[in-house]
Amino acid sequence: MSGNVALIFGANGISGLALISQLILKSPTEWRKIIAVSRRPPVLSHADPHNRVQHASLDLTSSPATIAEGLKKAGAEEATHVYFYAYIAKEKEEELVDINKTLFGNSVEAVAEVAKGLKVFHLQTGYKYYGVHKGGEYLAPYPFREDSPRHKGLNFYYVQEDMLKDAAKKYNWAWLVTRPNFILGVSKGNFIAVTVALYATACQSLAQPLYFPGSSVSYALPYDQSTAKHNAEFQIHASLKPEAHNRAFNIFDSAKKTTFNELWPKIADYFDLQLPVPLFAKPPPEEKSMGSVWFAEHSASEWAKGKEDVFQKIVKAHNLDPNAFSYATWDFLDFGTTRTWADDAALDSARSIGWGPERDIDPFENGYKKVFDELKALNIIPKTPAAPPTA
After folding, report:
1. Which residues partner with 261 through β-bridges?
2. Three-class DSSP labels, the chain
3. Given this model, what pLDDT does residue 284 score?
4. What's the rounded Cα separation, in Å, for the pair 227 and 230?
């Protein structure tokens, strides 16, 4: 039977949802079936005129045999391409490594048992490979390149990438790894863009300016942005290119580097918000600590504390999704805006497989702005300016 079959793990997350949205735009002669795997039922619907999306609710921490049985029921025996995005967050690094090693290993074994005709197994990791979550001596040299030396100590991306290469060799698959940075997209339970939207909505309602959580240092540093649908298009592109197989690739929106001093005013304008004057009042950290410390002048997580009643009044006033503000990840917004080092990678490898400059996108117009528009359509943020909360 002609046409590829995609098997997507982590299909309810920001990246899995983006991949599904891009695959359903493709012809059924190219992609005839899309199998979406997640622990929970689908959080968003997929309007595919060809009805190719089949969902399977599976716990990836269960045994490989149990997962394999569920995959068989979903028709995964026909899978030609795996796209793996599943992830479980843990505070302690040892636990983070252990749980994600388990869910990935279980999934790989189940796929090997079920999908005998698999061609390509794609794994999405990210810039943590380069030590951006640690800074200092853990950072890879700039610009980050796919063959950068690994930092010392634990990193579950290293474990998963090694497991994938071993499995690909054992089962005669091609492997593919992509490494995006801040992923911009829509999901119910999300990181930076959704949290920014909820933060701005609350500032709008409270008649507050839009404070940047970080400092004058992080405001001016280059931070690569990786819009989820753009990542997905690249991942489809690379998975179908033999010259991309058995390689890792950085992927972000544009070779033109992006800073928050460009993005933040545009975000404020979108929500009809003012920026504070002065924008920053505290002196930056000492020069000797740059590159190794976090510095938050206006921590979003601290700002959000004790505002649950305010959030619920906004939800009620605008008849929003009752869980809207629970989708915010305030700590991650701080994590992404308060570092004193850049997230700056090279795009050369992507360019080498035909991902030319014409494929670059604008992180605000094609990233943040589109996410904000989608959140309005999903009734997660108000379609009109948020009114002050009433008693």
Report:
1. none
2. CCCEEEEEECCCCHHHHHHHHHHCCCCCCCEEEEEEEECCCCCCCCCCCCCCEEEEECCCCCCHHHHHHHHHHCCHHHCCEEEECCCCCCCCHHHHHHHHHHHHHHHHHHHHHHCCCCCEEEEECCHHHHCCCCCHHHCCCCCECCCCCCCCCCCHHHHHHHHHHHHHHHHCCEEEEEECCEEECCCCCCCHHHHHHHHHHHHHHCCCCCCCCCCHHHHHCEECEEEHHHHHHHHHHHHCCHHHCCEEEECCCCCCCCEHHHHHHHHHHHCCCCCCCCCCCCCCCCHHHCCCCECCCCCHHHHHCCCHHHHHHHHHHHCCCCCHHHHCCHHHHHHHHCECCCECECCHHHHCCCCCHHHCCCHHHHHHHHHHHHHHHCCCCCCCCCCCCCC
3. 82
4. 5
| pLDDT tens-digit map of 63-95 | 999 999 999 999 999 999 999 999 999 989 999
Q: Give me the pLDDT at residue 302, please.
A: 97
Q: Are 6 and 28 in contact (CB under 8 A)?
A: no
Strands 53-57 and 247-250: unpaired
pLDDT digits (tens, 9 = 90+) for 113-159: 999 999 999 999 999 999 999 999 999 999 999 999 999 999 999 99
- For the entire predicted model, the pTM comes to 0.95
- Cα angle for residues 214, 218, 221 (degrees, 5° grid): 160
